[in-house]
Amino acid sequence: MKQPQWAGLLGLANRARKVISGEELTVKEIQKGRAKLVLLSRDASPNTKKKIQDKAGYYQVPVKWVDNRYALGQAIGKDARVVLAVLDAGFAGKLSSLIDQCAREAGI
Predict the structure, then answer these.
(1) So what's the pLDDT on residue 1?
(2) What single string gives the DSSP state of each residue in 62-104?
(3) DSSP 8-class letter at 35
(4) What is the domain extent for residue 55?
């Protein structure tokens, strides 16, 4: 199966060290004002979803949804990841548009 475009760009951002993964590290980056975009897996637990959405909403950081934790982890070359933060505005803007485009094509 072909990898979506956003996953390739996310892998590039990860290699450029502009991605932080994990719930606690993501929350810290949101609070410090360094997170420009948060990617959250649709299969995350309800508690994790609420915590991340509340923090991101309070600090005005956009949140984009990804199909599952395995797609998110595979994009950065790691095991399953539920949440991650993108720390670069350029990567965040392009990732956001690619994820929106992918969602439109899928009819979500």
Answers:
(1) 56
(2) -EEEES-HHHHHHHTTSS--SEEEE--HHHHHHHHHHHHHHHH
(3) -
(4) 5-106
Average pLDDT, the chain: 94
List the CATH number of the domain containing 75: 3.30.1330.30
Dihedral sign of CA atoms 72, 84, 51, 58 in order: negative
- Do 38 and 64 meet the contact criterion of CB atoms below 8 Å apart? yes
Tens digit of each residue's pLDDT (9 = 90 or more) over 35-59: 999 999 999 999 999 999 999 999 9
With residue 20 as reference, give the H or E element that holds it.
strand 19-21
Question: How many domains, in total, are found in the chain?
Answer: 1
> Which helix (H) or strand (E) covers residue 60, if one does?
none
The residue whose two tokens read 């951002």 is 13
Banded model confidence at residue 107, pLDDT cuts 50, 70, 90: confident
Q: Packing angle between helix 23-32 and helix 46-58, nearest 10 degrees? A: 10
